[in-house]
Specification:
Blueprint: E1 2-11, E2 14-24, E3 29-33, H1 40-47, E4 55-60, E5 63-66, H2 72-79, E6 82-85, H3 97-107, H4 113-126, H5 142-155, E7 160-164, H6 172-187, E8 192-195, H7 199-205, E9 208-213, E10 216-221, H8 223-228, H9 233-241
Parallel strand pairs: 3-8, 3-9, 6-7, 7-8
Antiparallel strand pairs: 1-2, 1-4, 4-5, 9-10
Helix pairs in contact: 3-4, 3-5, 4-5, 5-6
């Protein structure tokens, strides 16, 4: 069970998150939608302390961290339960695909290189990039780079995978391959919290969809509830704007 309770985040005098509560069950895929600038990505980054919330509690299984008073050890324990997939891939340019995936296993988990590389190759095979293990990011397409980014997060076998608009930086022809990999992960009951503009993905894959506006959760429910029977006028306007 993952719980975000009363999460607040300010940037200077601007309050970006205004008391967010979310619960995610094991194996559940929760998708957050909403207009740009509503705090979706900021919320995602507070989950593993890429951004520190000003107030609130984050709990993943047996690890619970108060964002106002916590230790480095607590934050490290929380991060070890998460994997983060960035919208701009965030791969190390000087490392091969295999080295990028193995890096976290070596530095975070303390694995020996040989063991980490073996696991990285296994993951590359799983994500359809087994023949790209010695390729550097510059030699890979955007879609391939993002799949390596997902593979890197998968390697740590996290309780929760966080996706921050994973297709927003991709050319249209590469979006499908990344969404397909995410669908494959969903079939394996990988717990995921996804910020995305891909409404079709949310419809097909999400167990729960959350609509955010102005730093609040305005409405949440099943994809059928959100897309077929939206209650809040803000959600209705948003869905009209994105053509749903």
């Amino acid at each position: 069970m993952i719980k975000l309770h009363n999460i607040h985040k300010n940037f200077g005098d601007t309050e970006v998150l205004k008391g967010i509560d979310i619960e995610i069950n094991q194996g559940e895929i929760v998708v957050i939608i909403g207009s740009s600038g509503t705090g979706k990505s900021t919320l995602l980054r507070t989950v593993n302390f890429l951004e520190q919330a000003n107030k609130g509690t984050i709990s993943i299984d047996d690890v619970s961290v108060d964002t106002e008073k916590h230790t480095k050890a607590e934050v490290l324990a929380l991060r070890r339960k998460t994997g983060f997939v960035f919208q701009n891939y965030a791969l190390f340019a000087h490392l091969t695909a295999k080295q990028n995936i193995a890096e976290g296993l070596i530095t975070v988990r303390g694995w020996k290189k040989e063991q980490a590389y073996e696991k990285a190759q296994q993951i590359l095979n799983e994500i359809g990039l087994g023949d790209k293990s010695e390729s550097y990011p510059a030699a890979l397409s955007g879609g391939q780079q993002q799949r390596v980014g997902i593979g890197r997060a998968m390697a740590l076998e996290p309780e929760l995978l966080l996706f921050d608009e994973p297709t927003s930086a991709l050319d249209p022809e590469w979006v499908g391959e990344v969404l397909q990999l995410m669908k494959d992960l969903a079939k394996k009951h990988q717990t995921m919290l996804v910020v995305t503009h891909e409404m079709q993905f949310a419809k097909e894959v999400a167990d729960k969809v959350i609509f955010m506006a102005d730093g609040h959760i305005v409405e949440q429910g099943s994809p059928q509830d959100i897309f077929n029977n939206p209650q809040d006028p803000k959600l209705q306007r948003f869905l009209n704007q994105v053509g749903v």
